[in-house]
Design a protein that fits this description.
By secondary structure, the chain is mainly α. It has one domain. Helices cover about 70% and strands about 0% of the residues. Helix 2 packs across helix 3 and helix 13 packs antiparallel against helix 14. The chain is globular and about 65 Å long.
């Protein structure tokens, strides 16, 4: 593939992502109507989240482009003995991009991502109004099957290693790090020189949120920490305990007065499947073409996130495994969709 060939791989490359979010919004409205509530299109903290998305994406976009300029300078000096001026280096790095179009891509990605997360948040926090069933007993049973009769989550949380104050605090911070890693990696993929891969990633990223809430509404669950809180009460995890207390309070407020409930961004209870694990696995899958050290680091982060999701009590082990499977299916489908579109365009 030529460096800039994928820029023209599909003139309507945004159509699948826009269509996905549009169908998601339509389905959410139908579900909300049948369940007796309306979608809150401006939940608490939504303007703040949108400002953070835009500011963070702008910062990391500039950072990654500057990093590529420096990297290209070092590469040319080391391999070709060239010493180009800064303007020449910048033009060389930006050559694969149509800057106006790329800026529109990033802007569209921010809008689509914000819309998808607002819809996801609405549905996740109103799960009891849509499906009253709770399947924690089923997932706990599946976990015991994986643990050959033992509860792997309780075993991890109660072990001498993971209950140690320093280790517990490490996983506490690691799990929260997902919120800080998410946007820089999204910016990295959106600015990838391989534009076809970039478009496939955007679609896959959005599809993960849609697939996650579809499964959550079908198989609602709370999570180990809300079913057996005593297992995790003594662990040194202030961040997890604080967030879990907030989420539990919101859940009880919704049950007590669903018609007066105010939706808050990034709250809601759902154990199966783990979106945290699924998204970091998606990042690792889309990093498959990078250097070996980057790939190893990505998959180590996935493994640590899987362990952390259990140790903090947010998820059963089967939740993380399901998140891995969801990421694999979404990645394969998205790559096939955009690869196929490129081949049809070139035919």
């Amino acid at each position: 593939m030529k460096p800039d060939g994928s820029l023209r791989c599909w003139p309507g490359y945004l159509v699948p992502s826009v269509a996905l979010v549009a169908v998601f919004a339509l389905a959410a409205n139908l579900i909300a109507g049948r369940s007796g509530f309306r979608l809150d299109l401006s939940p608490a903290y939504a303007p703040y989240c949108l400002a953070v998305y835009a500011g963070t994406m702008l910062f990391w976009s500039v950072f990654f482009l500057a990093f590529r300029v420096v990297g290209e300078d070092l590469r040319l000096k080391r391999r070709e003995g060239l010493n180009l001026s800064l303007p020449a280096l910048t033009r060389r790095v930006l050559a694969p991009y149509a800057l106006g179009r790329t800026a529109l891509e990033v802007l569209a990605a921010i809008v689509l991502f914000h819309a998808a997360t607002v819809i996801h948040t609405n549905l996740q926090q109103r799960v009891p109004a849509i499906n009253l069933a709770i399947h924690d007993a089923v997932f706990a049973w599946m976990d015991r099957g994986l643990g050959l009769g033992n509860d792997p989550v309780a075993a991890l949380a109660g072990s001498r290693l993971f209950s140690a104050s320093v280790v517990a605090r490490f996983f506490d911070l690691l799990y929260v790090s997902w919120y800080f890693v998410k946007l820089p990696l999204v910016a990295y993929f959106l600015l990838a020189a391989d534009r076809q891969m970039s478009h496939a990633f955007l679609f896959a990223f959005l599809l993960m949120w849609v697939a996650h809430i579809a499964i959550v509404l079908t198989l609602p669950s709370l999570g180990p920490v809300f079913v057996t809180p005593e297992v995790f009460a003594g662990l040194n995890m202030p961040a997890a305990h604080s967030i879990q207390a907030t989420v539990w309070t919101g859940y009880r407020h919704f049950l007590a007065n669903p018609m007066q409930y105010r939706v808050h961004m990034y709250e809601g209870m759902s154990a199966f499947p783990s979106l945290h694990v699924g998204l970091v696995a998606l990042y690792a899958l889309f990093l498959s073409g990078t250097r070996a050290r980057v790939r190893w680091a990505a998959w180590i982060y996935v493994l640590l996130m899987l362990i952390g999701s259990c140790v903090t009590g947010w998820h059963y082990l089967v939740d993380g495994i399901a998140g891995l499977g969801m990421a694999a299916v979404v990645s394969v489908f998205s790559r096939w969709l955009f690869k196929g579109s490129s081949e049809r365009q070139g035919a």
